[in-house]
Amino acid sequence: MEKHVQAQVQHDSIKNPDKYWGDFASLLHWDQPYSKVLTHNAMAPPTDTYHWFKNGKLNTCFNAVDRHVLSGRGKQVAIYYDSPLNNEKRQLTYQELLDQVQTCAGVIASHGLKKGDTVLIYMPMVPEALISMLACARLGVTHSVVFGGFAPLEIQKRINDSKPKLIIGGSCGIEVNKIIPYKEMLDKAIDMSAHKPAHRIIFQRDAGRAVLDPSRGDLDWNDEMQRIRLAGKQFKDYVPVESNHPLYILYTSGTTGLPKGVVRDNGGHATQTLATMKNLFGARPGEVVFCASDVGWVVGHSFICYGPLLLGCSTVLYEGKPVGTPDAGAFFRILEEYKVSTWYTAPTALRAIRRVDPDGNFSAKYDLHHLRGLYLAGERSDTGTIAHFRHIIGGKPVVDNYWSTESGSPITGACQGLENAHGAREEPIAIRHGSAGMPMPGYDVRVLSDPEDDGSGYKFHELGPSQFGNIVLKLPLPPSALTTLWNNSKGFHKSYLDQFPGWFSTGDAGIVDEDGYVHVMSRTDDIMQVAGHRLSTGSVEQILAEHPAISECCVVPLSDKLKGQIPMGLVVLKSGVTQKEEDIVKETVHMVRQNLGAIANYNQTHIIRRLPKTRSGKILRRTIRDIIAGKSLENSKLVVPATIEDATVLNELEDVMNRLGLVGNDGEAGKLDDTVKAKL
Ligand code: COA
């Protein structure tokens, strides 16, 4: 059978990466040309075995902003800022953006920061967040954006690991019916942190102004920008950096409570992000992109900030919710008002809209004729949501795509922008419900069996079509993928490369079907997707363990109709605890909100007598999840691990879970499509 064009392009990109990525890299401005697109040195340590664009130097900010001003796009809007939460709209042209970025870079440089230093950005969805990111990139300073929903403990972990010389923050975030005191959270995080950055530049918002304390290094954003303008110290030049110089660190939940600092380079990221804009979205310069994520997530980095700007598009920065700001038509108003052609969001946001507006009455009020496609990521998309919104947007494609902070770009999807040799658009692959599409160019996606010890070491093998197993990527990873973990190359090997030598372990499980469509079904580790946010059970457990009455705890995800997954805590109390159980429960819920953030959606702690454990003391999380999913000793579906310390705990746990009404919840985000289920 003839290969579909997407499969053919993907195949060519793997066979001849130099040609494939070289074509996209040539669209960028390089201050020093690279000597080779992909260099392979088998003798080098795994983090350096593959090197993209060796010896090349470029600047991501120049490519995302200056390049477009120089080519005549100065008057085009670069950022449409729309905040129903702050009742504010602003537009910045490329020329205005350049001016702001040069000024902000001047501010950062004036505090002695230079290439190789780091800046932590903790800001709400305001243009100043993007300006700060681009200003760092201009200087070769590595930024680390922390999602505004994270509370002090999580911020502190990121400060301690990335060791920023400077923090840029907002005074507050604005939620539907409350103001989030960002500056206070930053203060608490810095108090807890061993590393103390010298300065904090705070962007004051009238909705919640912060008290600035110069003795602690607090500075006001506007004063700083004004100081640089008056002194004429804008950073008009830019610093060309090596292709593999880190553009940013973005922390992502690991299986332990400590987040992993994913390192993204400049050259590979710019090249592949540009390629994704063209291939996946079929976007063209001058068009408008609306990505309803948050700039604190990888999707926000790629499709609110860097992707649209690298291509010369206008990006919509939306500070609002899918519902309640003011109604379920909010996203559709944006689509009409800014003539959006590419729309990106998370399935959970669509489910929230559908719940309020099941008949599409709100969306029907708006003209969506500029829209070409809707793209979904952040968690598994469910068939019902996709079908509903395909109808709402007039039959245009709704394209699920699967990726991660680590990959930095979609691993699978249905490309809407592939062109033939004459520049005409090729027909995209058909959307297959339950699947997030076929591998994108650069990704060699396979499914492997679990490694098993055959006496001479751990062995694994590749599984055939529709066989369920571990989803892996064949090395080399494409240019946008992480190069290492910040300050933790050992952790990089351990987390991603050691389990299947020669392959990158995604931590996801699923199948590749007979036609090459990838179906991602579950995680192989303890990561949850809560309302489109990636969180680890470990980070919640770490907080619960701090409660003085708790001796042991375990957090497992439950499936939730709106949010995909939500965490649930099972805790065992220390002997002799006399505190009322209901108070302990309330306190744990409060602690998670205060330390991790309300975004964890943590609202249930259950006190139990004991947890199932191995003889070496490891809590058997999988077994707990199996019991909740309905596997039991009685129906003979529960596999009792050979290493269990005391199997009688299982009956006890089954009883408790039944009593709590939790049995039957499979804990998975999204449901399998029936056609896929039938194949398994
Ligand atoms: N800063 C501070 N707090 C935040 C926050 C932020 N940026 N984002 C969310 N929160 C708070 C919320 O106010 C809420 O607080 P509450 O418990 O006091 O009410 C809590 O965290 C839980 O938030 P969330 O799970 O987002 O629930 P919600 O009811 O506010 O909104 C959705 C539900 C589905 C509308 C929302 O989760 C959503 O739009 N999700 C999509 C996320 C997304 O796009 N992710 C990127 C994937 S690519």
From TrEMBL:
List, alphabetically, the Pfam families matched: ACAS_N, AMP-binding, AMP-binding_C
Identify the residues that the record assigns to the Acetyl-coenzyme A synthetase N-terminal domain, covering every copy.
10-64
- Which residue numbers delimit the AMP-binding enzyme C-terminal domain? 540-618
Task: List, alphabetically, the SUPFAM superfamilies matched.
Answer: Acetyl-CoA synthetase-like (SSF56801)
Domain (AMP-dependent synthetase/ligase): give its ranges: 74-452
Q: Which InterPro entries match?
A: ACAS_N, AMP-bd_C, AMP-bd_C_sf, AMP-binding_CS, AMP-dep_synth/lig_dom, ANL_N_sf
* Gene3D superfamilies in UniProt: 3.30.300.30, N-terminal domain of ligase-like
The record's similarity note reads:
Belongs to the ATP-dependent AMP-binding enzyme family.
Q: What is this protein called?
A: Acetyl-CoA synthetase-like protein
User: Which organism was this protein described from?
Assistant: Linnemannia gamsii
